[in-house]
Amino acid sequence: MPLSRRSLIIVGASALAAPGAFAAAPANGRLAFAVFRGKDKVGEHVMGFSRSGAGLTVSTEVEMRVKLGPIPVFRYAHTATERWRDDRFASLTTRTDTNGKVEQVTAAATASGVAIEGPAGRLTAPASAAPLTHWNSAALQGPLFNPQLGKIMKVRAARAGRETVQLADGRSIPATRWTLRGEAEIDNWYDAAGAWAGLRGKLEDGSTMIYRRI
Q1: Which of 94, 102, 149, 164 sees the fewest Cβ atoms within 10 Å?
Q2: How would you class 106 by CB atoms within 10 Å of its CB: exposed for 0-12, middle for 13-18, buried for 19 or more?
Q3: pLDDT tens across 133-189, in order?
Q4: Do residues 41 and 28 touch, judged by C-beta distance below 8 A?
Q5: Would you call 4 helix, strand, or coil by DSSP?
Q6: What is the CATH number of domain 5-213?
């Protein structure tokens, strides 16, 4: 299934809660990407990372706009606050505005699993579930839920090996690629330190969305 614009910012089995989450947080506390649809830049995706003791808070802001000539035909804004503690997912709140349609999701780890409420309704995911917010490659090893729609996603994750990925300034750096296949088609790259370095996803119209790290 091609990746939709609605699911780009996001993507069972039982497994231990994903380890190594904090190792993937960049040392400077920030990740920023230029977002391209084909060759055209359509927006930016910015993440901030704040540590406090055993806790980590990740804030996300995404703005995209697609134009047909001078006329905007697609507007997208997404914000999220994600919290981890002791390398385990703790909670998430998101708000997404797609061409004026607003969707919100809340999720929290509980004794019985991850309680999620969003446009898809209420559900309890496995305790090892985490949102697919891309920055944490360790989370790909367990169940993933869509932080925009609040539902478990049916995808297969695989480590594809070492290669290079291009940054926004044109440089290429060594990276490890992970593939997600199923109801979405996404490739993510992670640098030598484990930080998210790039993304490529197929859109439902057949075009390609690319993230290049700034």
Answers
A1: 102
A2: middle
A3: 999 999 998 999 999 999 999 999 999 999 999 999 999 999 999 999 999 999 999
A4: no
A5: coil
A6: 2.50.20
